[in-house]
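Training component of the fellowship. As part of building independent skills, the fellow (R.M.) carried out the full modelling exercise for a liganded target. The chosen ligand was SN-glycerol-1-phosphate. The inputs are recorded below so that the supervisory panel can assess the work.
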Amino acid sequence: MKQWRHAFKLDPNKYLSEEGVRRICESGTDAVIVGGTDGVTFDNVWNLFEQIEPYDIPLVLEVSDMEAVVPGFDYYFVPSVLNSKDKTWVLDMQHQAMKMYGDMVEEQLIVSEGYCIVNEEAKAFQKTNCFPVTEEDILGYARLVEHLFPLPIFYLEYSGKMGDETLIRKVAAELSRTQFFYGGGIQSKEEAEKIQGIVDTMIVGNIIYEDIETALQTVPE
Ligand code: 1GP
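Fellow's submitted model of the complex:
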């Protein structure tokens, strides 16, 4: 996981043809993450799992609903939304995950992600009842995840919007033990290359459904 530079995120609530799934899985990306904000159900996660599972690629379920946890994934990422006003999204969901699936933690299948959701227009920002963050807030969360509550992943989430490059560089400078995930608004090969030069792992989502050719070009050569 430490070596992942690029991952695609597939939304179980969105349609992608079988051919599209094949091209994503054979693209040379380092991992495929299954996750979304709305309409994530056991059935649509299962359907996507069945399509991806035959390919030789690390497969991650990003858990957003305990009812939609499908067995068989290589990893289960459990997000903790650090800038949520609501404890449910910071701690209670993780607690629930450990109550139900805690035995998997010993096999290192469950991985905690410290999220900071920046884009106020993002569905995830609204669903998890986040408060808007300043640059100082974001750097504070990065330090918190690196030093105080050491977590394996800090996820700077701009979902749907490109982040500020200078700020992304400042976040990267705060993280050494913690793996830096960036996601949001990657719409071209050039943007992908720029971000890949700064963060540990870049996540590409929406563009898969809008323009798969461009999405495939975001994978590093
Ligand atoms: C979403 O961070 C991912 O959770 C990717 O963002 O969909 O904007 O590429 P985009």
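The panel noted the following from the submitted structure. Residues 6-217 form a domain with the TIM Barrel fold (CATH 3.20.20.390). Residues 9, 157, 159-160, 183-186, 203-207 surround SN-glycerol-1-phosphate (CB under 6 Å).
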